[in-house]
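Suppose a classmate hands you a notebook page containing two proteins, each written out with its sequence and a corresponding row of structure tokens. How would you begin to make sense of it? This section walks through that situation. The first entry is reproduced here exactly as it would appear on such a page.
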Amino acid sequence: MRGDTLQIFISMIVYMAVVIGIGLYFAKRANESSENFFLGGRSLGPLVTAMSAEASDMSGWLLMGLPGVAYWYGLSDAAWTAIGLAAGTYLNWLFVAKRLHDYSVIAGDSITLPDFFSNRFKEKNKVIMTISAVFILVFFTVYASSCFVTVGKLFSTLFGFKYQVMMVSGAIFVLIYTFLGGFLAETASDTLQAFVMIIALVTILIIGTSVAGGTSVVVENAKSIPGFFEFFGIASPALGADGTQIAVNGVPQFNAAGKYGLYTILSTLAWGLGYFGMPQVLLRFMAIRDANELKTSRRIAVVWVIISLGAAVAIGIIGRSLFPTELTTYSASESIFIVLSSNLLPAMLAGFVMAGILAATISSSDSYLLIAASAFSKNIYQHLIKKDATDDQVMKISRIILLVISVIGIVIALDETSVIFTIVSFAWAGFGATFGPITIFSLFWKRTTREGAIAGMLSGGIAVFVWKLLLKPMGGLFGVYELLPAFIISCIFIYVVSKMTAEPSAEIQEEFEMVKNK
């Protein structure tokens, strides 16, 4: 290992040691009860709530996936995605956060999202809870695999180690960390990682722009590529028979620009709809110590998101200017942040910046694993399989499920040609369509019925699979991002089935009014 590479490695090891230290610090308190392990005893302050929500949400795709899209296709696809996400973040904090916090307390002091949905509709047979838990297990397993891919790509690109070995090692590290500290360790480290992520992004943005010769040079280079620097066009790299981009005399070749019309823009903006159904974000709303502090959290979260997303998109554009032929496949393009960091920064500083990718990955994967484990242990095991389960038994089962999910995620992530952005987009659509509509209807429409909730969740979740696997490959109108049609389908089912079934009980309606008037 070269001297500079060794320095980068040491910096990252130090960072990982700090994260493990956080897990150990919170281990005792986290293991006092399942409520502490899964929700931290509703003790989060506004800064931790905001920063941990955004760090757990963005994951490695913010530093690898999104810059990779900008490097490969240019401005439009990445920018419209970022705009949709920023808008979704703001609206979710503005309308959903306080209402969900208050409702989760009133509805049986719910500590998981499936708990809330089930308690909201006063279930006895726990159908909604079971459906919620199953979808959470499925989509978070996919999500966790995307994080493992990120770690594998990071270390294999940096140090030349075998991708699969690094991916499995990263997965084991995340698993051990999540085992130790639960939700409190997760949120504390996520706050630290959110700061690391935004500092890393801004650092590379500023230095990269300077080295490239300034903003005007970067923009001119981008404009010289057909469709690359347009909001209503998209670049199309010219690929050879082996699937890599063709370069002539050191100049990457592109086909004629493609069109990026209104239909495609709406499809991309639909990313913002996903926020209304993201368990890792919604859980933070439930966990804050005082709902009145959510306004402060919203401001922090929105500022963080706008800066981070903007920097990530810009880094992809800068990367194409500085290293035009370095990354010749879509999958490889997701390493542009790593290439910039390792080439432009002193080794120790590059190690710190590279820790930003680890930060993003760890902050997300621990959330995904923990929420998936809680979905099974609390909502399926304790409520359906063993109703008299003790708190210790629930904790033991949750750790077994953590291990199982990790193993499945590792299997999914074994393919080193996996594209992080693609994996994340599918899981994001799954959560957005399954939980987004029912979250909104449950909080804001008193007439929503249990039957409508079940119909909406099933139709939304199934529609994501059907659209993604069967309809989207047909192209044309079916080429839209699966979240948009699936979200609409779920809303229709909730409304129609609720109207066709009997009104909610007086108890349910009274609870709704209590929350509404709070």
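The notebook's second entry, a different protein, reads as follows.
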Amino acid sequence: MASANWTPLGTEYYEKLEMYQLDWGDQIELSKFTVAAAQYGGPIALLKDDSNTPNVRPMLTVFTSAGKILSQLRWNSGKIKKLGWSYTEELLCVQDDGTVLVYDLSLNFLRQFSMGQETKETKVHDVRIFSSYKGTGIAVLTTSYRIFIVNSIDDLRIRKLEIPGADSAPTAWDIITMDGQSQALVAKRNELYLVDHGGQYQKQDIDLSQTEEAIVDMAISINNRYIALFSEKQVIWIGTADFKKKCDFKPKTSKKPTQLVWCGSGAVVALWDKLMLVIGRDQQYFYFNNDAAVHLVEEEDGVRIVGRDSVEFLRKVPQVTEQIFKIASMEPGAMLFEASREFDKQSQRADEYIRTVKDQLETAVSQCIQAAGHEYEPSKQRRLLKAATFGKCFLTDYNPEPFVNMCQMLRVLNQVRQPPIGIPLTYTQLERLTMPTLIDRLVNRKYFYLAIRICQYLKLPEAEGASRILAHWACYKVQSKGEDDEQVARAIADKLGDTPGVSYSDVANKALEVGRNDLAIRLLDNEPKAALQVPLLMKMKRENIALNKAIDSGDTDLIYFVLLHLKDALPKGEFFMAIRQLPVAYALYIQYCRQQSPALMEQLYDQEENHQEVATCKVMGSFKQERLEDRVAVLNEAKDSFTKAKNDFAAKQVEDQMKLLRYQRLLEEELQMPCQELSLHETIHKLMVTRNHKMAEQLRKEFKVPEKRYWWLRVDALAQSADWVELDKFSKSKKPLLGMEAFVDACMKYDAKMEARKYIPRVSPEKKVYCLIKTGLLREAAEVAFENRSEEELNKVLRACSTQDRTVEDQVRAYKQQLGAAVRK
């Protein structure tokens, strides 16, 4: 009968399930070890107490919950005050100087941190490792009776809690998480205080049976809603976290319990050597006598009991299980379960049971499914699921999803509970832990194949499931010894292939961390993203390979990233030699230098004896020289370089530029006319504007400026200086090289409309309409266009008309009609 091993506790029932016969047999006597077991069926760490054996370092051993050894380490650091586990199953070793050493399941050192300088100086008196709203936290009580606390070992923000009466040690203390913050619950004999991070504390009103008795131990439930206190008069006080509801219980013992923990939130378990007392919140109790010392592990829904040769689990019987298996239960699930059993016997009573719950059949099926999830033995699970299947047959619109989900969860749970794996999770714990976290724990234990099969079975996305696990497997593979790099790289490539979500660069980085550089390079050959390859190759000092990979990718930013690193890392000569052989890299570097460092570009060309480009760089550099002598000196060097490059034209142009600079200096000295940054044409133009026509003519002859260009400059300069008389004289030269429309344009450029109209009579017929329009003489332009019989010119006049020129528009349209009539005739 399923309820045969149930033990009543008030109106509730408790049961003790056997999970494993431990692999370590009777070799372990727990009373001689410091024990730390992780929640959610996690591993067990044992530290042998060798204090009586001089010069012998204690042995630290990690086992699975089934007693299978995972790793061992001879402890050679400081004195350990507390062992504990983080939520991610990292082993936390807190030393007496406040240093916390963190290890993985294989006892590989991960990191360490300190709880502060004051802790180091005053030493640690006691430690609590707890679950906070941010993860796993640590609190230490120093010998100066101050508490230092971090709410997360991954976010080290140490806070100091000042407890009242710091002249004496607390008689008991623990950490409680309330309202999103962790607070210390501190007992100073019979007074109880709640201390927060701000240094504030509140004295709690608590009704002890004897007002003078000191509180010497306490336990806080996992959900932080209930508290148990043990007084020096052997009274156990049980109540809520707000200290309103309570009961007192006095066990028949004169000793302080070795452990005081909560079994879920319904009962307190007190342990004295081999006696284990279970006390309800209404003073009911029962007890067990163990054969040897045990260790209690507080879980979400019960207590895991680690003994010398077995692991058991004490829990409150789930309500749905009680509804089905309680004697004389009339619940729908109980009726359906009995109907299924009678059906297997081919008994007509099955029909009677089904008829009894025909209106509650869906509830009955749901109860059987839920009860199956809470069962630990597969045979009981099968019986309950079979009953649920039997009940489904009578439902026409039943949703099968809850049944399917439960079957999947139970199949996963039964696999991880197997002794070789040793994770004795319950369904309640799995709901709280979540499936992704369980998969992470399998990966941490190196059960890669099982983790992948679970992901495939549950049809999890590749990125969250198989791909991620394969990446972890590959990182583990590169750390294995005994295989050469080529074999490992081939095995990883064959297994991973083109699996989406797997980064070969991450695996290669892991290989680099363990000193396998050649393996890392082989792995990077499979990485499709150059942006992930290149930084790692540079980290390995393989800059040439990194540069080639960057060039092949076509990513200019990536190429520049490598080039600038090489420029800083290599001597200048070696760097130039390296990039000269790569045209793309060379061209990009030249472009970079042109914008950022012209001097460096000149050095590069000079090393290559590229005189043409060296000369170009010097010409560009000359414009940055402020002193004339320096500019001329640089230009002279540029001339020599052009000569070496056999570019006589460029050399002559540089020579003319030096000559112009000297002339400009002379002009500045004689005429007080700044013109140092002007070109030849601008200089001549400025001389004309200032009416230094003789000097302008001298420059024209010296630099052989073409006459037509000189005319353009003079016409523009005379118009700019408003020297209309001289402009008119110039227009009447014997051999004008420009048409009169040039004079019209120059006058209009400087808003001299009346001056511009003076030249219109002398404009050639084909340009006259253009000039009349430009000077605003639209009516005259229309008449000339009509005389020229040009419809195109008439259209130009029409486009130039504005709303004020209606009369002209009408005239133009009339001219166009006349022209059109003449054509038709």
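A careful reader of the second entry would note: The chain is about 45% helix and 20% strand.
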